[in-house]
Design brief:
The complex is a heterodimer of chains A (about 290) and B (about 260).
Chain A: H1 4-19, E1 23-27, E2 34-40, E3 43-47, E4 57-60, E5 66-75, E6 80-84, E7 103-110, E8 114-126, E9 129-130, E10 136-137, E11 140-144, E12 155-157, E13 163-168, E14 176-179, H2 181-194, E15 199-201, E16 204-210, E17 216-223, H3 228-231, E18 239-243, E19 246-247, H4 251-258, E20 266-273, E21 276-283, E22 285-287
Antiparallel strand pairs in A: 1-2, 1-4, 2-3, 3-6, 4-5, 5-6, 7-8, 7-12, 8-11, 9-10, 11-14, 12-13, 13-14, 15-22, 16-17, 17-18, 18-19, 18-20, 20-21
Chain B: H1 4-13, E1 15-20, E2 28-32, E3 38-41, E4 51-54, E5 60-69, E6 74-79, E7 100-105, E8 113-123, E9 126-130, E10 141-144, E11 149-157, E12 160-165, H2 166-175, E13 183-188, E14 191-197, H3 202-205, E15 213-214, H4 218-225, E16 231-238, E17 240-250
Antiparallel strand pairs in B: 1-2, 1-4, 2-3, 3-6, 4-5, 5-6, 7-8, 7-10, 8-9, 9-12, 10-11, 11-12, 13-14, 14-15, 15-16, 16-17
Classes of the chains: A mainly beta (about 290), B mainly beta (about 260).
């Protein structure tokens, strides 16, 4: 009894099977394991929020063997953690196009059940998106797909088994997301090179305010003693209007403006002090976490 | 070419509601296993001394319990009908994660409701399905994309549907129920405490009582029950924690076969 449904069913199961060799179970929290994906030989990526211990992390590999894994580093902003293990494969192939309505499979692994899968669709795709954890994703890829407790950190693929992203239920309250592969690439590269993701910072606490000419700015309400901004001569009460050439009216814009400016580099900060516009040069500091 | 609608309609005609005569606490579901009135369902949906089965076309008839296996949560019923459209049974060992599956049942009282999803994982004695289920799905079919029954929907765990594999159902139907102790057990630090006894069950016949603590683990008890021995000697504690008692539990063996 040949039918279209059986053909689709078989196609889905084949895609899951083909991806199985990339997927591991990650044991780094009580009760539920999470899933992880080989991104290159010896390197596994998973969802940062599922890593609750820094030591004695183990992974169940595709062949069922349990192996120790070391936490190489993590970035809570994008919910990505990087583990090192022995062996493994390169990353799975990438989807060339990701669009709302595409069928999406989340593929994970647990020690008891082996490879596991759930199906749904990509429900929304948009451009750059800042997470509430302070990271920036190249794309916002929302999933209409049930992420079970062990699915986080696993792989989200299309029906051809091509990567849509890494599954995370911790970046949005309303839906699971796929963390884009391009973001995973960058975080992996930085963590392998330096052990952490570098993020430049000014060392100020800011409050959005409106200037008399109706322009928006951010008033400095706190200043880290000896921090980058304090060293550059910023004062409490200064109102920031531009950072590194970009106008800023909220803290998200400040963070975006700082991206691409490495710690240690100089950035011009435009501000209003006592009603007069000024420019100061701040040597950016490095914030280690978050 | 068959789509969800056609496959689901066939499955719906092979799905029944199972309930206690006189109504009461909700209905479970069941699967028509052969044309001559054999119905497979969960043991836990059988409540009350008299049961009735309602077919997809509204016919309602009394059902007799042919066999029940509390440990595997399966039961076989027989109804007086000869013209039923049975479900085809699939091979649960051949299931692959990602395969499409569908469940039919009476969740929240809606008879014949369909939910669809995928096989999440198979192994360790269960088919796990990423399918939305509700309590009224218990005892009903989980089927693959060809409409073949691959499991009996039994429980919901962390949002996943758990189904007894169809190959386990086959074993139950051919070889009968496995010996059971006839007691509801709760794990405690020393072993297993008896919460409740089935009237006339093996534990009750051996004079075990609610509150007794069996000095064994569940895996060991299951292995002993499956060992084929006619009598099990179980050590247990009652009241005085320093005095280990012994009970001789007589087991019926796998006597009754349903098909």
């Amino acid at each position: 009894m040949a039918n279209e449904l059986a053909a689709l069913s078989s196609e889905l199961a084949t895609a899951v099977e083909a991806c199985g060799k990339y997927i591991v179970a990650v044991h780094a929290r009580p009760r539920f394991s999470s899933s992880g994906v080989f991104w290159k030989p010896g390197v596994i990526v998973t969802a940062e929020h599922t890593i609750r211990q820094e030591e004695e992390i183990t992974v169940t590999l595709p062949d069922g063997v349990t192996a120790p894994a070391a936490l190489a580093g993590s970035d809570s902003g994008t919910d990505i953690a990087v583990l090192r293990v022995e062996g493994g494969t390169d990353a799975p192939p990438r989807a060339a196009r990701i669009a709302p309505g595409h069928v999406a499979l989340s593929i994970g692994r647990s020690q008891d059940s082996g490879v596991n899968a759930a199906m749904g669709i990509v429900s929304a795709v948009s451009g750059e998106w800042r997470t509430w954890r302070g990271g920036r994703l190249d794309q916002y890829i929302r999933l209409d797909l049930t992420l079970f407790p062990g699915s986080d950190g696993g792989l989200v693929v299309n029906t051809s088994g091509e990567t849509i992203g890494i599954a995370s239920s911790a970046l949005s309250r309303i839906a699971g997301l796929a963390i884009p592969a391009a973001n995973v690439d960058r975080v992996v590269e930085q963590i392998l090179a330096r052990g952490h993701v570098t993020r430049s910072y000014l060392g100020v606490g800011l409050q959005p305010v409106e200037l008399p000419d109706h322009r928006k700015g951010l008033m400095v309400l706190s200043l880290e003693a000896g921090g980058p901004a304090a060293k550059a001569g910023l004062l409490l009460g200064d109102i920031l209007t531009a950072v590194a050439g970009s106008p800023v009216s909220d803290t998200g814009e400040v963070q975006s403006a700082l991206e691409g400016h490495a710690p240690g580099s100089a950035a011009e900060v435009g501000l209003v002090r006592g009603g007069e516009a000024r420019t100061l040069t701040v040597v950016l500091g490095e914030r280690r976490r978050g | 070419m068959l789509g969800w609608g056609d496959v689901a309609e066939r499955l719906r005609r092979a799905t029944v509601q199972v309930r206690a005569v006189g109504g009461g606490r909700g209905a479970g579901s069941g699967v028509v296993w052969d044309a001559d009135g054999l119905i497979v369902t969960n043991a836990h949906v059988l409540r009350g001394p008299r049961l009735e089965v309602e077919l997809w076309d509204g016919r309602t008839m009394l059902a007799a319990v042919v066999s029940r296996d509390a440990r595997r949560d399966l039961a076989a019923l027989r109804i007086g009908a000869r013209d039923l459209e049975p479900a085809a049974a699939g091979d649960s060992d051949a299931l692959r994660p990602g395969e499409l599956v569908m469940a039919v049942g009476s969740p929240l009282g809606f008879a014949g409701a369909l939910s669809t999803g995928t096989v999440h994982s198979a192994g360790d004695g269960w088919v796990r399905a990423a399918v939305r289920l509700a309590p009224g799905n218990s005892g009903g079919p989980l089927a693959n994309a060809r409409g073949q029954v691959v499991g009996i929907n039994t429980a919901i765990l962390n949002g996943l549907g758990l189904a007894v594999p169809s190959n386990t159902v086959r074993d139950f139907l051919v070889r009968g129920a496995r010996p059971a102790l006839g007691a509801v057990l709760e794990p405690v630090p020393l072993g297993l405490r008896i919460l409740e006894l089935d009237p006339g069950g093996a534990a009750e016949r051996a004079n075990l009582r609610a509150g007794d603590v069996l000095l064994t683990r569940r895996e060991d008890l299951d292995a002993a029950l499956d060992s084929g021995r006619g009598v099990l000697r179980l050590h247990f504690l009652r009241g005085d924690w320093r005095k280990v008692r012994e009970a001789a539990v007589g087991l019926g063996g796998r006597a009754e076969a349903a098909a």
